[in-house]
Write a structure and sequence with these properties.
This protein is an alpha/beta fold and 265 residues long. 33% of the residues lie in helices and 26% in strands.
């Protein structure tokens, strides 16, 4: 695991992000950073603002105020294409895979390679799909021409992650990647998450599973009712402290000021 202390420049940084939907203020002055070669776990209870923050990162929801920086420079992200062009990929919980297509077709869906103006470059796509899976040390997939319908849950998650890193991405956001997986499949996915960071990518892991979080995360950012309760190295906190931050916004001397937490509640 890489050194937990975040040093140097973040790959991706949000500063003072606010987002409201009508009268409901969902994100309150949120600061969030993702560092190269590290896994940042984003944790929080239902309604804490995790999904809204991820969608702001992905360009789906425009922030009402705040700064968005990539590789230290302010950028404007008006939609998912803008974030993808920066090198930010999101693997949502539903994976967005098509059961009726094979692995290659899924990995290149919407970004197909062509020979000339019409013909698909099937050999090149197949080769790149194999190379990407091999670079991630994925050995559980027998053939890149298997239909996604024939894959297990862990294999599907692997394909979705490989699809995200195929395009020279720099930041990968994973939304509950081990949800509904068995023990062996969870192990495979967590190993893959760690390998992404070891390759120098910035990885964001959104998870309710504290065992998974403490196994692979270098940093933990805890949200409580739309506010950042803590952003700390994973080794500096324990399971109980993180649960307290998630449920009350505070653990001992760490977290949101009591008056602010009470106001948020």
């Amino acid at each position: 695991m890489s050194t937990p202390e975040a040093t140097g420049q973040p790959l991706l940084e949000l500063r003072g992000i606010n987002k409201s939907f009508g009268a409901v203020h969902v994100l309150h002055d949120v600061d969030f950073a993702v560092y190269p070669g590290q896994v940042t776990a984003l944790v929080g209870d239902n309604g804490a603002g995790k999904s809204t923050l991820v969608k702001a990162l992905a360009g789906i929801y425009p922030a009402d105020s705040g700064e968005y920086l990539f590789e230290g420079k302010p950028v404007t992200v008006n939609g998912p294409k803008d974030s993808a062009d920066l090198g930010i990929e999101v693997v949502y919980q539903d994976l967005a895979l098509c059961d009726n297509l094979d692995i290659v077709e899924n990995m290149f869906l919407g970004r197909e390679l062509h020979r000339g103006s019409v013909l698909l470059d099937e050999p090149e796509m197949e080769s790149k799909a194999r190379e990407t899976l091999a670079s991630l040390s994925v050995r559980t997939v027998k053939s890149v021409r298997q239909s996604v319908a024939s894959l297990s849950g862990g294999q599907r998650q692997t394909v979705a992650i490989a699809k995200a890193v195929l395009w020279n991405s720099k930041v990968v956001l994973l939304d509950e990647p081990t949800a509904a997986l068995g023990v062996a499949q969870t192990r495979q996915v967590l190993d893959l998450v760690r390998r992404l960071a070891d390759r120098g990518l910035g990885v964001v892991l959104i998870s309710h599973n504290m065992v998974d979080v403490f196994e692979v995360a270098d940093r933990i950012t805890a949200l409580f009712l739309g506010r950042v309760a803590a952003d700390v190295p994973a080794k500096s906190v324990n399971h109980t402290q993180v649960v307290e931050l998630i449920t009350s916004g505070r653990s001992g001397e760490m977290g949101i000021a009591p008056a602010t937490a009470a106001q948020s509640a």
